[in-house]
Amino acid sequence: MIDTSIIITNYNHDKYLGRCLRSCLKQSIDKGRYEIIVVDDASTDDSRNIIKEFEDRITTTYLGSNVGVAEASNIGIKKAMGAFIMRVDSDDYINENTILFMTEILLANPDIGFVYSDLLLITDAEDILGRIELDTVDKIKKHGAGIMFRKSNMEAIGLYDKELRNAEDYDLITRYFKNFNGYHLRLPLYRYRQVEGSLSKQDRKGWEAKSNKKYE
Fold first, then answer.
1. What is the pLDDT of residue 195?
2. Which CATH number fits domain 4-112+140-184: 1.20.1250.20, 3.90.550.10, 3.30.70.20, 3.30.70.270?
3. Rounded distance, CA 47 to CA 143, Å?
4. Each residue of 151-167: pLDDT tens digit?
5. Strand partners, 150
6. Fewest C-beta in 10 Å: which of 37, 85, 105, 114?
7. Furthest-apart CA pair in the chain: how many Å?
8. Any idea what DSSP says for residue 209?
9. Global pTM?
């Protein structure tokens, strides 16, 4: 039985996509309990060839035209078989225990609508800049990737707004927060890559690195 679906939307991240997929495939949870769905948003780089290396272990959709992260995410969610949804950005990656820990929390606590962890901010070369503690609502709203939601709740609020090309996470979480409560798992499970020139990540540059400790 599939409990959780990982949704990876990708656009021209061939440099990082393999790392992302490997981290999702090596999760410590039983392999039959989760699935990986990749939606390639009409990439023009070598992403398709990277994805093909993993196609026997993942579900793939190749879009003919670029629709943006919001609509690409919706396409993946609609294909998902899991009761829980977690989106992982294709230039990021996750700790091997991420899906197990978050899935078990949601299974054991039906009153919790979503679960999220802290992040490790990393460079392009995967050097750790520091830990980002998601200890305020504003920080959580800036990090839609890495949060595990209940699919039924996402459907109830209408999924992502497909008209949005930016701030789609902020919009979704704002609507989600109005109806469902969350749980902060105080472990740095998500690896958040600071890609130079990425508009969606520029506001992370000014955040203080709280720790230089290395985490596996």
1. 66
2. 3.90.550.10
3. 24
4. 999 999 999 999 888 88
5. 84
6. 105
7. 43
8. P
9. 0.90
